[in-house]
Amino acid sequence: ITLRAGSRGPLPVVVILHGAHQSCAEGPDGMSSSDFPCLPGWEPVESHTGYRYLAERLAGDGFLVVSVDGRPVAPFDHTARPFPDGAEAGVSTWMDLRARIVDAHVRRLVRAGAGETDPGVDFGVRLAGRVDAADVGLVGHSRGGEGVVWASLLDGPRTYRVRALVALAPTDFADRVVPATVPFAVVLPTCDGDVSDLQGAHFFDRARNSARTQPLLQVAVHGANHDFFNGVWPDEWGLAAAGTFPVDPAGGCDPGSEARLSRGRQEAVGAAIVASFLRGTMLGDAGALAALGVDARPPDAIAGVPVTARAQEPTARRIDIAPLAGSPYDLAQTAGGGRISSAGLAYLALCRPGAADEGGEGSGTDGRSDACPPAWPPQAQAADELRVGWSAPGGRLALALAPRPVDLRRADAVTLSVAPTPPEADPELNGAGSARPFSIALVDASGRRATVALSSAEPAVRSWPTLTVLGTVRVPLSRFRGVDLSRIARLELVFDRTQRGAVLVTDVAFTR
Fold first, then answer.
1. 70 with 46: CB under 8 angstroms?
2. 115: left (phi over 0), alpha (psi -120 to 50) or beta
3. Angle at which helices 143-152 and 91-113 pack, to 10 degrees?
4. Residue 320 phi, psi dihedral angles, 5° rounding
5. 3-32 b/e with 16+ CB inside 10 Å = b?
6. Positions of the chain with pLDDT lower than 70, given as ranges
7. Of 46, 186, 329, 443, which residue is least crowded by CB atoms under 10 Å?
8. Are 225 and 257 a contacting pair, CB within 8 Å?
9. Distance between CA atoms of 171 and 189, rounded to whole angstroms?
10. Phi and psi for 204 in degrees, rounded to 5?
């Protein structure tokens, strides 16, 4: 438990849950184990102490922070042994137990804050009057990231209110959907050697375009690995990182690479992301959220580390044009009923990563049997996307907003999620480490057009070495000059900045 010395009054609460790791080390045979409690002669691995760097940062911001011990789950994470009551170990029991460990700790905190003093609520520090039960944030790492999502979805009345969720390099075994009323952020380390497909991105994708009242955020941290978010865990001892198999000793994720983060740099960027998101959502610091790209231009770097950020505003603040969500969906029509058309492209296809589970692999106008990029190197996202390729400058994709012109005077920006396809998918169009910028045009009912060129420095249009990850492009409407914003007919993506290229595009929208 960590709180600022001398702090007074009810404090917002943050509970941190670690992930799956060996619970006991250096036993008689020199090996580790997943027992709980540890057998005589074995040293416990106290994973919950590995977030001191984060707890101290949050306590400095005025939070009361508790990092909880999740080791009771360890014997069932790594073996087929049943639970003491006979229940079989599996995803539902792993995650349900994690959720209930978190829930039990928060309930104990609330009781301690209400002045109870019996041993069942003893945290070793006086908490009477210092716990704000209406302002609770949950942070989880690895399986703990999925565990806090489960905790936010537990049934029954609560004695507290969950105000924010953050998942660091989380697993996604069970396809749960984060609550629509809780702000959610997921952090993806691009050199993750454990959850190497970055499946935690699916939390964002399942929640996007739904009837949400709170924002979503995804931050891909380039050069970060899985284990360095926990100060107790060692390096990943040569596990293949995302998109690299076998381990590439000359690659950007090798421990000797300058691009791979040291433990100190990774802790700094992780703490900056988590603290900014919780300050913004729980303490009302709009500037902290803007620094992460929520309702603002996405950052190029956080704490000096390159990142690719993706954000989506709540439903009431969006005018969706091409959300590419739902089934059936084709390439003919935008969300508002306008036409989708193209000219001068090498190809245009609809990639539906989930379609393989439905008996197909996507659809395309060029007759391709597979409209999605190959499965390796992995694509972090599971969102439906337009896959667009051009082999000469000037190709365009036109999205008519609706059958009639749309009034955008109350909108403030156009946003879209973008990523270059990996070189392995389009070797003739994209090269390794290349950027694929393009231009965005608005065309009004009178045919007047205003065009804004994207910079090649935008993280979303850059190709990263290990995987494909979507990022947000956000352009204020004030930059589109000379058009009548009260009568906008269509939005165009104009591929005029490079000789050739291929990108994935989804979630085209206007924010207001």
1. no
2. left
3. 60
4. -75, 135
5. bbeeeeeebbbbbbbbbbbbbbeebeeeeb
6. 27-30, 78-79, 237-251, 325-330, 354-370, 375-377
7. 46
8. no
9. 12
10. -60, -50
